[in-house]
Design goal:
2 copies of one chain form a homodimer. Chain A has 315 residues and is of the alpha/beta class. The first copy, chain A, has helices at residues 3-8, 49-56, 89-94, 128-138, 171-181, 199-210, 215-218, 221-229, 233-254, 269-281, 291-305; strands spanning 11-16, 21-26, 32-38, 64-68, 82-83, 87-88, 97-100, 106-109, 112-115, 123-125, 144-148, 153-159, 162-169, 263-267, 287-290.
């Protein structure tokens, strides 16, 4: 390995989730030198994490690695502990699981965050905390709610530079189960690329989020609309999507989420657009940020905080 | 066919659902002479309904048949129309789909009931209306809510001898999807025969039905309990069951179901027991009736109303 390489690559930032392993070689100023990914997600591995990682970064300099996501879960490389609320950036940095591999590489795995509450029976995030750190890197004074839509959608309350509360919803998985695995599959159809543009989506949002129809009381209507009104299957899929996303928004409001809070939607473009559209229908403003960029920003921020790369020590 | 047989069997009452075909040969006083069933449910047939029926009743007298359930759906033998609300017994009797088969057998298929509402986008029942007629046959003055738990749980409001409102919940299917098809399947286990006796069931009911935690906000706790507290998988399955059934009860209350209404739970024993236990935990009294018996009572009641067998004409 040449000195040129070592100088050129100061840190490897790793987003290691259930289905993908993604690594970025970064310069000491945080600039991306090279990006690689593979399908060696945590869900497809049983052991061999170090080998899977080294395979991906073969030829890169022996820089320190900082990793976020399911890599720190019980099924991951090493279980990184959960930090309690309120979870500040220094607290998360202090609980990084740091170790040196047999090859001599220094690795740090970001901890998750756990919640205990009298109102419900616990909740956890793992991976999203790093995106929140990225959000705070971009908007240091942010106070409000960050929504991270997906298979398991997370609403994260942020104030004073810390995660103060959060809530997980099974929205993406619920939609998928109902649309593709339940008897409602006979009443919906078409693709789901631009569902949020369809009238059915707006009607679904109206029912559950604006009018307060409980999600469990609303969902059979998908069948009734097909049966009684021969609704177009693609519009009915959009209606189901609206009911589920609207149900999530209503549940958050019922759970005490501040209706006037600043909202940042963090995620992939099409899903973020559906959420932005839902809030727009409800007359609420939102801002959107790219989830992938925020993971990198969060990892760089943490790496700076513990001195893996030079930089200020702001928490 | 001998006269003895014709005298002995005055009516064939048929409960023809998605998975089962069940026929009872009845005397003119409603007494059951013989019962038979087969797995020729509507879900497994594509045409050939008359043949499937005649196969089952081979050797029985050429009595008139009255049928309830999915036999009257679009996928059934003939589509029997839906009656609007309020659905009285005479209105249901008047909309019976009556025809004579090529073999010369007189058949009547019970219509379903449909709902239109500004608050939601339609609802339907098919089969349950006959159980409600059976309930009204047993308790002519009943006013309150009849709950028919199952894959698709129905809450039916009854007053002045009519169905005045109803609501379908996907409770059974939702439980099955979450317990067996979602990622929560890794956090639950054991059998579900006596779930409602377990502490987890009571906790789930408390969360969603007593404390008002929205179902969508509650369900991820199933995972968190396994992860953070290593809860016994069987108790966690009971907790999920409590969340779903409690979510149904809460949704019904939010939808305007009268909290002081008389409740009759109509169904199979183990499921009816879980619902009775849920209401008991909430301090509400219920009565339970056997669903199979009520279908027969409803069919006999309708047969009398249209003169297929002798009897009073009470509606």
């Amino acid at each position: 390995m040449s000195n040129r390489n070592i100088d050129a690559g100061a840190l490897i930032a790793v987003d290691w989730g259930t289905s993908r392993l993604r690594a970025l070689l970064l310069a000491s100023d945080g600039r991306v030198i090279e990006e690689r990914d593979s399908d060696d997600g945590i869900g497809s591995l049983s052991g061999g994490h170090e080998e899977a990682f080294e395979r991906l970064v073969l030829g890169w300099p022996m820089a320190s690695a900082i990793m976020a996501g399911m890599v720190g879960s019980r099924q991951g490389w090493r279980e990184a502990p959960y930090v309690s609320l309120p979870a500040t950036v220094p607290a998360l940095a202090a609980k990084l699981d740091r170790f040196v591999t047999d090859r001599g590489r220094s690795v740090a795995i970001v901890p998750g965050v756990m919640l205990r509450s009298n109102r419900r029976d616990g909740d956890v995030i793992r991976g999203e905390e790093t995106q929140i750190i990225g959000l705070l890197d971009r908007e240091p004074g942010f106070a409000g709610v960050a929504i991270l839509p997906g298979t398991h959608s997370k609403w994260v309350s942020v104030a004073n530079g810390a995660i103060t509360d959060f809530q997980t919803y099974l929205t993406g998985e619920m939609f998928d189960l109902l649309a593709h695995r339940s008897f409602l599959r006979h009443s919906v159809g078409g693709d789901d690329a631009s569902l949020s543009e369809r009238p059915g989506f707006a009607l679904g949002i109206k029912r559950t989020a604006a009018e307060g129809l409980p999600f469990l009381a609303a969902v059979f209507s998908v069948r009734a609309r097909a049966l009684l009104d021969q609704v177009d299957p693609a519009d009915n899929l959009a209606y189901l999507s609206g009911l589920v996303i609207g149900g999530e928004i209503a549940a958050a409001a019922a759970g005490g989420s501040d209706r006037n809070a600043e909202i940042r939607i963090i995620g992939a473009k099409s899903l973020a657009r559906a959420y932005a559209r839902a809030f727009d229908l409800l007359g609420r403003k939102t801002g959107s940020l790219d989830g992938t960029e925020l993971v990198t920003a969060g990892l760089v921020h943490l790496a700076r905080a513990i001195g893996l790369i030079p930089g200020n020590d702001r928490p």
